[in-house]
Specification:
Four copies of one chain form a homotetramer. With 343 residues, chain A is of the alpha/beta class. Chain A folds into two domains: 13-250, Type I PLP-dependent aspartate aminotransferase-like (Major domain) (Aspartate Aminotransferase, domain 2, 3-Layer(aba) Sandwich), CATH 3.40.640; 251-341, Aspartate Aminotransferase, domain 1. Helices cover 41% and strands 16% of the residues of chain A. Chain A has 14 helices and eleven strands. In chain A, strand 10 (307-308) and strand 11 (316-320) form a beta hairpin. In chain A, helix 8 packs across helix 12 (251-271). The longest helix of chain A is centred in the last third of the chain and has 21 residues, at 251-271. The first copy, chain A, is globular, with a radius of gyration of 20 Å. Chains in contact: A-B, A-C, A-D, B-C, B-D, C-D.
């Protein structure tokens, strides 16, 4: 009953099998292999668009390398104040982008509104100021909420108007696609997204993310940045194989839909407890719920793993479901919290 | 018959099995798991020394992060002009070390002599000059040669005398240990090495290297550097499991000894050809041999994979054996080259 | 009648004379000269404390180099959202500090309160987060307001409690000292400040600032950072001579007191106009005043130079007085604005 | 009799007068002033070419900012192993260029030959290698020697062929122009130079250099780099005034010709001593001469300032003349060395 994160779980069997299957004979190293080439075609097909695809192993690498491709060292990157790039990557975007500045903005449910970004827009061409360069949003967000296609398109239009490149941190992109029932295209390039960090690790991969450029011209230097960052795998086929299996036959969406469904179940169950209140709507696979301390104690006592969101004294919990979360565990968690409340 | 590199091969079965075995239940992420803790103890035991161990996924990450821990941005890092850090990492050490300067020195068979480094020593404390900070050597070297313990110790003594931290790029450290029959301790901290990039990927892992600090004080910031570089794996257990299996029951040395033995066989066979000449002695798992163009053509025609060392016009070949190279392939390669020479 | 900034004016005669006087014979370069040594003693005497003093030519260099000495690349630097380091240096602190993150906080009149900083304190030791490293405040602030000694001391105590080094951007430090009638010591090291960017350029120098470390241990690497940043002058005596003259015989405070007095006069005059409102109290040499558009037009028509604070549509003006502002110009500006209002 | 460097001397009277003359009234800050605009036109006229001109205060800033404009972080910058950018800037080019790699090459008399650079050319497009980006030469060189126009043109042609941008460190460009009697154009853009660091500090300015782009497109980001590096002066007119006076009425060439003439006189005198040998031909204002230890002792005893070139034990001296070196001092130095030799 470990709901601390979707990275405490292991690897989906299909993906582990794909790794084993890729372990056949020799293959050109550093991405010049057949699996990687098939992956590129698969991503293009899936997104219905020409793409440049770069597998890496961590979400931080995907985001930081992507943003470094979009912003010069004197660039400003607009993001939400709760975004992973701002709060949870130990400054990786600044490191890879040579000291570019993240401008962290507020917004309900960890979502940015176009007007918020536009209001913070720095006038261009004045040498004293960092220069507007990129917009980065997370889909699903760090609050477990989702941008609708129209919301992304509005951000995309605003970005275009202000000359911002548009990056999407899709560490939980599958959860968003599964929940919204949109096409991947609708949520990305059709809405103006230039680059997507397409996550797989949190949804069943061992360690695999793909940086997907819908504007391949922006990818011109990416290969050098990736190598120079130590993120080019010599045995690349094993990264690509994870991603290929992930995207094959809808596996990624099945895994995500499962996590989403159990998060909804957990959310409904916990929100119904006396004194409980959802901090954010549960739209993907994360539940943010304020609970009475007694319920929290009960959960902990029952061995349920969670985070106190906002520090050790917080009574808002984050619980995250994963591709392999069991319904019985969800129900047991709810029961544990409920039982104590009754007594 | 692909001898292009030891990274064109796949994963040793024992290591693949360890990955699968680690895929059990949930585990704390980011290295706070049981496998990673066991790995740390194992490395300490193997090296007979207190260590700080940081798994990463690529050799470039291991080297660049290690060097960044040893040199300030205004530091000088002494290395061989043929070293991987100088020639094959697209400037990763400079990137991670904030623009530190690699001073590339000459030396026969890709080995540095203490006197060469000492002669290039920059006077300390003069603000116009980068400041001597670190020495980095490769073991085995990029020429497939080996430093003997006494040679490393002499470098270590020189480094200490000049206030240099001492780094060893051990992408092929197993091959060195297997070939020399020394203890890991003898080749590292006993000879003055502060930090080792302990490679596994080239010797049967999927993607796993360990940065091993013998001077843990120097590791104080490493965790931040690794995270900030995007090299902290959320599902760390799968990196650690590779390394644990690698170092268990002598697997790493068995795999390396096999590669070394077949390299020696290949070396002897090719060197015996008319017009052939070894460029460097074959001491680990790499063969550097100058061959008549006809023999090279014959090898290529027979489907043997190799690199022309030094560019497309070079008649010096590099051939690398791996943990799973087949004796029959070695013999077939030799025969292919020999056959043509006769005709 | 140019009140756009205190950097549109020239050089105080005493400082120009000192430059000419320093142009005598040869002198050791790069700061090993007699003038620079005298300067160091003078600063120590003035601040009643052991100091390490590094002349540079721009305020941006002073601030960025100082902050880089206080924060690692993965450090967090707490500052006001209106501070020069955050808004007006094109990311120089991030550049020099290797991508450290500025955390920009709110506060009335461009001043930070200890509680605001404490509330934003990031928990230490968690590898995902940048690590609290430094606090930077401006004295006088970008709103032309002043921290009292007790306010600085409270920030200093908070900084010490949280392990933050404490930097003061003193581009207008003279204006603060002159206005508050405190000793330089009281406003700096006695209140916990570790490093001061002691400005002179805005108050009569040609181009000269001194980075003053009250905690010399923190200055260990500064000389390398300065050189590497291109900020070490070969003919250093001409920087030092400016600063020596500036600090001799109370010149710096006379110049600043003059500017302060005329700012007060301008502030009173403009604030008395119908429809006028001071945005911030006028405590140093900057006036921030909201005026009716007609008054603004009148000022412009009369050839008065100013900035519309917050963009071209703003009706809040910034007017800055300098060491050589003439009383008649202040009165003429007030009259210009008043005249139109009457008509 | 201080021949240690051309930066131990002061400021030419004409330049000091220009600084004083610029101290008139208020002027727009940060380079938007009349003096700076006049300077731009003057440089264009002098070089007979469209230019973008950026005044900075130090040669290190000029070189590092120029190179950062020409090379990406993963770029290779070809330079001489004795060049200032390689040996005397504490890694500033690497810092400003985000960790680009300087490839230091040999060449007689501190000059690079096209073939040497071409032979070191890294193959493009291979992600493991830094990518050829720029060539940087010094004119005059660090050995006090000169490239002839045809030599520069040959390097320029080679650079163009290999896609390298071409930078010239002209810290002593005036000495070169004065000695060769060429037009500035001939030595720069006509020979393929893209960017010149045009020095003035070593030849009579207080602290002023101009980065001159002959390919203005390459200057697109320079203003941001300069600001971000802390190298944008608020009272820019005082930098520009130095450069304007320097380039007016041939002052720069008169000053340089004087230094050159006295260097020649010093060179002839010292080379004629028994046991003396010129290390490099004396073509500009630097003399490199090997002398018997007794002569060196005699020079030192007579109060002559010089450097032992290559360290404290070297018997090769560097003596540098300047714009205001006195003939009598040159003769006295020669006599001092000669006298002792005779006794």
């Amino acid at each position: 009953m470990n709901f601390r994160s979707d990275n405490v779980v292991g690897v989906a069997p299909e993906i582990l099998a794909a790794i084993a299957a890729a372990n056949e004979g020799t293959a050109p190293s550093y991405g010049d292999d057949a699996v990687t080439r098939r992956l590129e075609r698969r991503v293009a097909e899936l997104f219905e668009h020409e793409v440049a695809v770069f597998p890496v192993a961590t979400g931080t690498a995907a985001n930081a390398l992507a943003l470094a491709s979009l912003a010069p060292a004197w660039g400003a990157i607009y993001c939400h104040e709760a975004s992973h790039v701002q709060t949870d990557e130990c400054g990786a975007p600044e490191f890879f982008a040579g000291g570019a500045k993240l401008l962290a903005l507020a917004g309900a449910d960890a979502k940015l509104a176009p007007a918020t970004v536009a209001a913070a827009m720095i006038e261009r061409g004045i040498v004293h100021h960092v220069q507007p360069a990129a917009l980065s949003i997370s889909q699903a967000t760090e609050a477990g909420t989702l941008y609708r296609p129209a919301e992304i398109a509005a951000l995309g239009a605003m970005a275009r108007r202000h000359g911002l490149a548009f990056h999407m941190d899709g560490a939980r992109f599958a959860n968003a696609v599964a929940a919204l029932g949109c096409s991947p295209a609708e949520l990305t390039w059709r809405a103006g997204v230039d680059v997507l960090s397409l996550g797989a690790t949190k949804n069943g991969a061992l360690a695999a993310e793909a940086v997907v450029f819908f504007t391949p011209a922006k990818a011109a230097d990416f290969a050098f940045r990736r190598k120079r960052g130590g993120h080019l795998f010599s045995k690349m086929r094993f990264l690509s194989a994870q991603l290929e299996a992930y995207l094959a036959d809808g596996l990624w969406l099945r895994l995500a839909a499962h996590a989403n469904r159990l998060a909804a179940r957990l959310s409904v169950g916990l929100a119904a407890l006396p004194g409980a209140r959802l901090r954010h709507p549960t739209e993907a696979n994360e539940v943010f719920v304020e609970l009475p301390e007694a319920a929290i104690t009960a959960l902990a006592a029952a061995g349920v793993g969670f985070y106190r969101w906002g520090g050790a004294a917080s009574t808002c919990l984050r619980l995250v479901t994963a591709f392999d979360t069991r319904e019985a565990d969800v129900d047991a968690a709810i029961a544990a919290a409920a039982r104590i409340k009754i007594s």
